[in-house]
Design goal:
Distance between the termini: 37 Å
Number of domains: 1
Strand content: 15-25%
Shape: globular
Number of strands: 3
Structural class: alpha+beta
Amino acid sequence: MDEVQETGIPWLTDPQRDFLAHLSVLTIQPQLAESWSYDRASDALGAIAEDGEITLRADHENVYVLICGRVIVHCERDWLEWMTPRWAASRSN
């Protein structure tokens, strides 16, 4: 991760942040020892975020979600911009 932005990503929209959170839950949920519901995994990640253990980082082409310093979600900026409205539209149906 060359020249990774360390202080937040101002260009991210709220829907993009929500989509990254969704992707984080989908990534973590199947890895849990117990069978956790989506909501329970989401709540657990919310608690971790409140403790400051979830960060977003970016370089010129990529966005990363890190939990406790480990990359959990990686996506290209172009894909994130393309996919977010499609994901948001699917949620409203």
